[in-house]
Amino acid sequence: MLPVRSAESGLFGFIDLAGEIVVPPQFHGVGPFAANGLAVAHLDPNSESGYGFIDRTGRIVVGPSFHQAEDFSKQGIAMVILDRAQFFRHGFVDAAGNKVFPADFEHARSFDDGGLAVVRTEEGTCGCIDVRGELVIPAIYDGIGAFAANGLAKVRRAGYRGFVDVAGKQALRPAFKEFGEFDACGLATFKAGNHRYGYMGSGGETRIPARYAEAAGFAANGLAKVRIAKRWGFIDTAGALRIAPGFDDVSGFTYAGLAIFLHTNGKWGAINASSDTVIEPVYDDIDASFDPTVLEVVRDGVRGYITRAGAWIGNQLC
């Protein structure tokens, strides 16, 4: 289901993938539907606690109760910002809007697929809790990144910049001064002394030598964008060039499995992993949508949705 907005009232509803309205516009804001069938909805703009949750029919399941709310995680838990009486602290609720555990925090992120959530204490330090609300990684870090598929997260604190595992053990301290987070293929970018970028493996070893002017993480399809001289192309996890550097600007393969590129005509299109143009460069903007198989586009001032094959679904305004 995709959000649409009424041109008359400014309220939001949903259309299906055929472009038909299935939930009439009636909300002041909406989020995507999670695996449990619920979505965040802004229900009352006049209240400091105006956010709740709706189901796929538009029925209000949890009325306006929160200052802000995030999408439900894989575990069916949503991070919410509580009301003024609770000092706008961050807590976690279930599908009925009830707290999953009593503890709340100065700041928190949603639970990841592995069942960990980063939280920040009043002292400004970060740790991780599990779905019971138990602190399983001590709050001793200045920052904690996302846990990658290889089970490592980038952390920083005084005297340490490296990675910890899901048990909180300091697992890797790379020799490089600059490095990124691990990606979907278990590799992380690093910047070498020659001011070029390469890729390291989970043990900190160099997997692809530092020879690129810029480099980004690998997508799930095993391709990463790299800049060679002034143009962008794509390499595989062995460092072999798979798509020649022919783009002035291009995304990774994170848009419905496609990469978005800027054409010389100033418009945006999309290619697949074989470098075939599957969406012609006729759009003023292309972005991801609530549905992983659908793209949000703008053309001649009209905002709408298309499939990854380029077929029109419907307008965002109704």
From TrEMBL:
It comes from the Bacteria. This is WG repeat-containing protein. It comes from Variovorax paradoxus.
